[in-house]
Design goal:
By secondary structure, this protein is mainly α. The protein contains 20 helices and no strands.
């Protein structure tokens, strides 16, 4: 171990914060590998950093990675996310701070579900497995695998289909990376919602919820082909830690049970006027796919309301006031630089240098005045740039909050559209089932008519003569061949008729 590496082994987070840019570059290069990963597991006391210190450290890391000496393959966004996850520890806090709220709602499952499992998976395969797992648990992928393949293969293709699952413009660095992990982030988000189902029913410690997550995780990894890892005794413990670290997303204050939660969900969904009813159950595993989707829509809408509230709380302090300071900043050039712009300043500098080559006190005096004017113009330019930079830095958190709220609204809109589509699909299925039932009924009736037509009518038996008990007589009480009853009027006529003369 080199001296620098030995020093890094005892380096605290506050020490890293104190490094200058050059030493920060050296530190990152020492701890990065060829695949762009940066191991910060040895960093001490990250959890003790204040949020402002974490933000400052993230800015220092970003600044260092922009230097040409830094490894070009270093995955800066993943490093920042990992640093934040180490500092936050458990993600299940019931009152997340603004920084936590403004993170992308769900990263790929490799980066958010605890310690990454030590196997190499092709990203394309990973996305396909998450796509399938999402469908199996009742989720709805934002697009098909074929559409995603076309999107990735064609840079000019429209990104509208996947916009609800991005956290930045699709042409940005973050947006391009997120497009490649849409299905894995959907899968993670879906199970975040599943965790919130149990938590908002007051039974977050339910083993049934964890068992469902364990089964889904086992199925996913078995598809990948890592059967030895799945059969390892530590596998269940790893998945349990991932389940425990999932955010709870508590939507109501403590003490309000399942009935209050049910009413809150119904109120949130009422404006959408869905035709099919919502039937929440105490055990979410007993709900229909339709009810689960409506509850998921409620989950995303709650997040939209939360992120919008965060943005609104920041607008005055971190946008309106900085904007006012920007407008009130001095715009007029200083007295020395008045009447000159950057072009004049450059011309003045050129003239002063040429004049300095000529002898004479007047030439020297003119050169000094021009140099002074140039310095004043440069000072004004620096002051203007600083004012603009200050505005950008002061409004950074608000702009993040506004962007997060915008993309979350797109996600809610997508979830509503999926619910409408589900209603249409279920109506079509019902009509198809009714149509099939009618066809079956008509065919059965026709079949019965055909069967009756094929059977010749039975000959009516001869009426037995009085006192005749022979073989030709048919009893009126024969159960399988009953005789038709005569009408009451005809029977009365027979009774009133006089008996025949016998001649005796």
């Amino acid at each position: 171990m080199s001296g620098a590496e030995a020093h890094d082994a005892t380096l605290a987070a506050t020490d890293l914060l104190a490094l200058d840019e050059k030493k920060m570059v050296e530190y990152l290069n020492r701890h990065s590998d060829g695949d762009g990963e940066c191991d910060i597991s040895g960093l001490v006391d990250v959890k003790r950093l204040a949020k402002s210190q974490r933000s400052e450290l993230a800015q220092k890391i970003r600044a260092a990675t922009s230097q040409p000496e830094t490894s070009p393959s270093l995955k800066i966004n993943e490093l920042i996310t990992r640093l934040a996850s180490v500092a936050d520890g458990q993600h299940g806090s019931q009152s997340p701070d603004r920084g936590e709220l403004l993170r992308p709602p769900a990263e790929s499952f490799e980066s958010t579900e605890g310690t990454p499992l030590p196997i190499a998976i092709k990203p394309k395969d990973s996305e396909a497995f998450c796509y399938q797992g999402l469908i199996e648990d009742g989720g709805r992928p934002v697009c098909s695998i074929q559409d995603m393949s076309h999107l990735l293969a064609s840079p000019t293709a429209s990104h509208e289909a996947v916009l609800p699952w991005l956290s930045d413009h699709p042409d940005s660095e973050d947006g391009v990376g997120e497009i490649k992990t849409v299905f894995s982030r959907q899968f993670t988000r879906w199970w975040d919602f599943r965790k919130s189902q149990w938590h908002n029913r007051g039974i977050s410690d339910s083993e049934e919820g964890f068992s469902a997550f364990l089964e889904a995780s086992r199925s996913r990894w078995e598809r990948i082909g890592v059967h030895e890892m799945v059969s390892d005794p530590d596998f269940e413990g790893t998945i349990r830690r991932q389940w425990q670290q999932k955010p709870a997303a508590q939507q109501l204050p403590d003490g309000q049970g399942f009935p209050a939660y049910s009413e809150a969900v119904k109120r949130r969904l009422t404006p959408h006027h869905f035709t099919r009813p919502l039937r929440l159950k105490k055990n979410p595993r007993q709900q229909t796919i339709w009810t689960n989707w409506l509850e998921y829509l409620n989950y995303e809408q709650w997040w939209s309301e939360t992120l919008t509230a965060v943005a609104e709380s920041l607008v005055e302090e971190q946008y309106h006031q900085p904007w006012k300071r920007l407008l009130e900043a001095p715009r007029c050039p200083s007295k020395e630089a008045r009447g000159s712009n950057s072009t004049k300043a450059v011309s003045s500098l050129t003239a002063s240098r040429s004049i300095q080559t000529r002898p004479g006190p007047k030439a020297v005096e003119l050169a000094k005045r021009l140099e002074k004017r140039l310095e004043a113009a440069e000072a004004d330019l620096d002051a203007t740039n600083k004012t603009i930079d200050d505005f950008i830095q002061e409004t950074a958190l608000y702009r993040r909050a506004e962007t997060a709220a915008y993309f979350q609204k797109l996600r809610v809109k997508w979830a509503v559209e999926e619910a409408r589509l589900m209603e249409i699909e279920m109506s079509q299925q019902r009509r198809t089932a009714k149509s099939n039932t009618k066809v079956d009924t008509k065919e059965n009736k026709k079949r019965r008519r055909d069967d009756n037509a094929e059977i010749p009518p039975e000959p009516r038996p001869k009426r037995a003569k009085p006192g005749d008990k022979g073989k030709g007589a048919v009893s009126d009480t024969t159960p399988d061949k009953p005789q038709a009853r005569r009408s009451s009027k005809h029977l009365a006529e027979l009774k009133n008729k006089a008996p025949p003369q016998t001649g005796f």
